Fold these 4 entries.
Entry 1:
Amino acid sequence: MTVTNVLRNLIASGTFLHLPSVYDPLSARQVQQAGFEATYVGGYVSGAIKTISEPLLTLTEQVNIASEVAKSVSIPVLADAGAGFGEPLHAMRTVREFVKAGIAGIHIEDQLFPKRAHYHKYQVHAIPEQDFTTKIEFSCKARDEVDPNFLIIARTDTCREMGLKEASQRINAAGEVGADMGLIFPRTNEETEEAPKVCNIPLVYVQSRGNRDGRPLFSRQQLEAFGYAMCIDAQVVIAASFVAQRDMLKELRETGDYKALTPQQMVIARQEIEDIIDLNTHYEIEAATVET
């Protein structure tokens, strides 16, 4: 069964998908090991790990990161496809490239392309609704040609400046041309609860931990109760990893040693890393071939 089939079956069964955003195979395997049914590669984390920021990411860079993640796990991987990396023609190629990379679905947004750095200051650079709808329509045509089970999520950022009415109108228009799901950015608790009621296709919520524009945060259980189908946890993995590494390096530099983890805890951590990359299987193959 393909990953797109697996994802579609999860959705059809009513499974609420909580998607921590990962950026490499090791973090993806940790997500899978923790029991999550699927994971996600976001533009924010991809731009951050390459230290160039999301607006400077190329299609090739994002596909390569997502592909490495997808090859390392058996659960479906979804990915951030930005603004489709261009016009409808380019968005069609974007769909094909992610399908070839083994990704189960993507979201495409109504931002300008190329994206601007001020996007991270919550500036909305929305293209006209008709242009967005056309881009989604042709992305869905590409999906239907290469893999009808590939998930297309239409994303709009307009709720931030123009309100829920404008955002839901765009999502509903995208649904009419083939989008499977929608993604908006409600600004308040009330908008968050109302959005699934006024949108005609299932919605994905983006949990933007650390956001500076006051967007509310919710538990997985709350979002499921509101009627959302998925939650992307956009910064939780990279932020937690960043803080842990920053504090470790500070201690190591200042004291010349690292004692936040005991020697025994380090033995356990090292063994867990070796287990998650399946090092024992490598030993077994070598023992049967070259190590006598």
Entry 2:
Amino acid sequence: MIDLHTHTNLSDGTDTPRELINLAMAQGITTLGISDHDTTSSWEEATNALRPGMDLVLGAEISCLTENEISVHMLGLLFDSENQALQDLLEESRDQRIPRLKKMVTLLNDAGITVSIDDVHAATPAGATVGRPHLADALVALGHVSSRGEAFTELLHNDSPYYVSHIAPTPVTAIAAIKAAGGVAVIAHPFASQRGKILSAQDFAPLVAAGLNGIEVDHRDQSASERDNLRAVARELGMVITGSSDYHGNGKINRLGEHLTSPQEWEKLEAMATARRVVRK
């Protein structure tokens, strides 16, 4: 069982890296990818928690924006964590999150929904990359909504009047940084229309030219028809096809291992990195 896309509480998940490792092993996951948003801060604890019987694939999910401001998430896996250029890109992405959240807090307050940036920080685990899920958690703590899911459905979705876009690298820039660091780049849930604007099939050509390795096809936020269309795109372009849970602990309803990558596709993807960086004990 190969699940290449999960999150810990060092971004917007709720499990610690150790808890996630233990859960994955208990559920029979044989290869687990951890890709927290714009950070590698979970790598050390996850590596220390690993035990024989499971392979660990370390990475990061980089928040990107196309030139026409479509939000894209790029999974960078198996890259060299010591690559300074990629770490600088991740740090810049993290730094943009605070001004964005402050603007969203102001819009909410103007509408009579009282919340402060201090409330957001209080809802963010120590060392975590702060983001909209933590604003959602603050709204839950203040009684404005009953759950993180309700916060996104009612207040924080991409078409909400309280939504603020963010400064981020383009997908091409992110792919180039991942590849320069020796890793592989997989675009996450690119046809998930329920999240907002999505890419078209024609948008993949420059990504492939930049070095895109794979496309996340099997994901709960993509309908059956979206998956079929995306699978056809991936095959036409010669891309590795992945599936994953995008597990966030209690932060989302996604279940660990609910979508998986085939061993054959994973073997192809791993071979595209410049070194064998899978962690084993």
Entry 3:
Amino acid sequence: MARKKASKERELPLDMVAGFEKTINFNKRPFKFTAKQKKFLGIVLDPESKIIFVSGPAGSSKTYCSVYALLQLMQEDPEKDIIYIRSIAESAERGLGSLPGDIAEKFDPFLMPLYDKVEEIVAPGDAIFLKQKEKISAVPINFLRGASWSNKLIFADEAQNFTLKELTTLITRIGEDTKIIIGGDFMQSDINGKSGFLPMFEKFDDDIAEEMGIHSFRFNESDIVRSKILKFIIQRLEGKK
């Protein structure tokens, strides 16, 4: 496999620009990005990047950074909106089928990671505005057959719970002016060894893929920012401490 070259970086914008029917602003509480996070954000914000696979342990802010970047891109192009993709696989005993309501209501509990990050990033009230205007929506991974995305911003979360077939379906939905981020944690699959995330990640982890706008980006335990104890836990689970 070809050795990867250093990815080019882009200077991050300090504020979101005006868009839609009002201005969506960052939450005033500062978030200090690490050098590694800035490198990832630079890749996502690069117009030449089309598909970005990102792996990392819990607490490495891969979801936060992904949502941050997509919100910025949506502000830069008001015609775009965000679609959140996730599997209905879960580690809890209660399955999706046992929850009340239609598919939208059943899937709503799985959107909490997205909603939480949006509410952390944008100013109070703006998250509600984005949902009301349907600038943010969600689809289960198993509902993608036949879909085609043009001028969209896609975030596929918890991709370790996607099979190789589901990931193939996901990335082949891409159309013009669409960007896809696929994030997951190799350690946390809930589908009993059927995860296709690592094989798909590695399939596009080379210079040729990068030249086509497909990137494979890794965070590791040293990039965990959530808490010191979580970093220790991950290192212990991986047998490194």
Entry 4:
Amino acid sequence: MNTNHKSQKRQLRVLTAIPKLKRAIAEIRARGETIALVPTMGALHEGHLSLVRLAAKRADRVIVSIFVNPTQFAPHEDLNTYPRTFAADQAALEETATDIIWAPSVATMYPEGFATRVVPEGAATVGLEDKFRPHFFAGVATVVAKLLIQCEPDVALFGEKDYQQLKVVTQLARDLSLPTKIVAGPIIREPDGLALSSRNRYLSPPERATAPVLHRVLKECAAAIAAGKPLGSALRHGRETITKTGFALDYLEARDAETLVPVGTSSSGKIRLLVAARIGTTRLIDNVGV
């Protein structure tokens, strides 16, 4: 990291065109400075901002991308209603060490005639999010590959809340020999344990009161497994608890923390517990390590 970068006055710039982005990156590189990227879809909350602060510790300059990626939404999902709060997002980033907001249009990211997709396997095909959202990881992998190529970061920050996505993106950068190091940021939670998410704003007051059950069950399952309780019985009890409290459960699974393949016993190495469930119309995900 260039220790002289603080002498350069920081002025947050919003860029929407690739030529301007490339000029800005060239200026940063000409000063010998490093770059960190925080990819987002906007509707920023403290979870995102924690990644921005971590990015500022890892590099001289920080780029935050804001792009609601249509290719990771299925027709029945919430693309049209996904929260778009650009003015508030920009105001929040003004209070951080962000140097550039990269806010391309859909036409910039996917111009007429766009015909290439990145279709990941490995951690993207283990029967978790991919089972319920089979379109999702090709959309994520394609847009992340484009963002890493466009922004040329030394490091890119992704939150652990989207744990399967984190593993997919890490393998993407490795498999495509991209020079970016993928860095994980810890899950940021409300005081009652609910993982921060842009979709939490969809919860009604009763749903919001119930939502922390997911994290509580994850912690209870993790404690039981760590104490030697059979993995299968711990998960069965957790699934029953989640369903009884009003959730429609997609999955509660114990997986290898690196490969995300199913684990049969608590002695299988590092374990990650992952959950996805709907309450009302809102789908929530969470995970904890064992």
